[in-house]
Amino acid sequence: MRASRGGVRVGIIGGTGLYRLAVSGGWRGVRTPYGRVEVLVGGLGPGRVAFLPRHGRKHEHPPHLVNYRANLWALRSLGVERVLAVSACGSLNPRMRPGELVLLDQFLDFTRSRPATFYTGGRKRVVHVDLTEPYCPELRRILLEAAKEEGVRLHPRGTYVCTEGPRFETAAEIRAFRRLGGDLVGMTNVPECVLARELEMCYAAVGLVTNFAAGLAGTKLTHTEVAERMERGTETIARLFLSALPRIPALRSCPCSRALEGAVVRV
Ligand SMILES: [Zn+2]
Predict the structure, then answer these.
(1) What's the CA-to-centroid distance between 162 and ligand 1, angstroms?
(2) Which end of the chain, N or C, is surrounded by fewer C-beta atoms within 10 Å?
(3) Alpha-carbon gap, residue 35 to 232, rounded angstroms
(4) pLDDT by residue (tens digit) across 94-151?
């Protein structure tokens, strides 16, 4: 699939909140082979942006049932080549504290039941896409520059552990994830990041630390706490994205647009 010319170039995937920033926007229903997705297309900064609330407009889809393939396909069909994502995270790393932002650079995948590829064999082909560097280096660089300019504290890298959810983790799981090198834990970045790469889209994700993970804070985890932190962090992320958007060049110089070269199994 190719991007439509003159379409929307940047997509923002987030929880509820960020898309309220759009000006003169309107909701659109986008049909995809995987289902219909509602996307808000509106102005933000210098251009048009597609906002996609990952969990649905009314937060009706839990993380393990989010229709990730429909979400990414919908953005691509609108012409989006770059995706900026926001994910709420628990922290396993004492240096990454609640309220802080982390620019993800690697992930560990502990999901179990999610459709994780567009390439399901047969006429849909078999593709083994390279994820050595899962997040777009160009978008990562731009976000770091924007953070510096805006005085926003953004940890430059972090390994994200993606769990299946919707439950939170046990203390033993968190101990194991720390030993494996995880910094943050969340439920949504995989397969979202992978599917973007399969569609040759650039994808970068900012993790917003909402709490210390199970067993590290000594208190019970609640969704209320997560939602409150998310609300407060949204303003900072909006400032970061507003500064990043005009820095994104029209043409891509990263390898993301050639992700399928050499990845398709020839029969
Ligand atoms: Zn890229």
Answers:
(1) 22
(2) C
(3) 32
(4) 999 999 999 999 999 999 999 999 999 888 889 999 999 999 999 999 999 999 999 9
pLDDT digits (tens, 9 = 90+) for 209-242: 989 988 787 677 677 877 777 777 888 998 899 8
Give 232 Cα–ligand 1 centroid separation in angstroms: 29
Question: CA-CA-CA-CA torsion for 112, 115, 116, 120, nearest 10 degrees?
Answer: 130
Evaluate the CA torsion angle 130, 132, 134, 136 in order and state its sign: negative
Dist. CA 168 → ligand 1 center (Å) = 32
Between residues 196 and 228, the one the model is more confident about: 196
Cα–Cα distances in angstroms (integers) from residue 139 to residues 93, 136, 144, 207, 253, in the given order: 24, 5, 9, 14, 10
Which residue matches tokens 């509820």?
16
| Class of 10-250 in CATH | alpha beta
Cα-to-centroid distance, 53 and ligand 1 (Å): 22
CA distance 68 to 138: 23
Tokens at 243, concatenated = 């500064």
Domain ranges of the chain: 10-250
Does this model's pTM top 0.85? Answer: yes
Q: How far is the CA of 259 from the centre of ligand 1 (A)?
A: 9
Give residue for tokens 């978008």: 139
